[in-house]
Amino acid sequence: MVGGWTNQNADDSEYMDRAWKAVSSINDNASNNGPYHFIPIKVISAKTQVVAGVQHKFEVVVGQSTCKKGDTDPKTIKASNCQLKDDGSRAIYEVTLWEKPWENFEEYNVQKVRDVESNEQF
Fold it and tell me: pLDDT for 32-68, tens place per residue?
């Protein structure tokens, strides 16, 4: 359907790449008030919409990393320098990314969906 949302494969590596790019926005979000930065664990849903570019909407499970706020700039967080904290909190965030590649434009909006219980599996 033109202009409608189309489901995508959440296991496609491009969505995990986008989740890592959204880390700065997730960590800037007021709902992450803990002492550690969040990092993505798994993308659990993804869809796209064509609207003057492409809008991607995906849900990502994030978890506290070993990188403390104040010690690490959120814009420099990568899998190579921030590991998942074993006993850290987890949450699901909805990320909306609007891309217009011909203008080198990306706009991220993030919203916390809910906390994740320690026994939940994805």
Answer: 778 899 999 999 999 999 988 999 999 999 999 999 9
* Count of the separate structural domains present in the chain: 1
CA–CA dist 54, 44 (Å, integer): 19
Query: The domain containing residue 32 runs over which residues?
Result: 6-116
95 is a domain residue: yes
CA 118 to CA 63: how far, in whole Å? 11
CA distances from 25 to 2, 50, 52, 90 (A): 29, 22, 22, 16
DSSP code of 101? Answer: G
Which of 52, 54, 67, 71 lies closest to 14 in space, CA to CA?
54
| CATH number, domain containing residue 95 | 3.10.450.10
Predicted TM-score of the model (pTM): 0.88
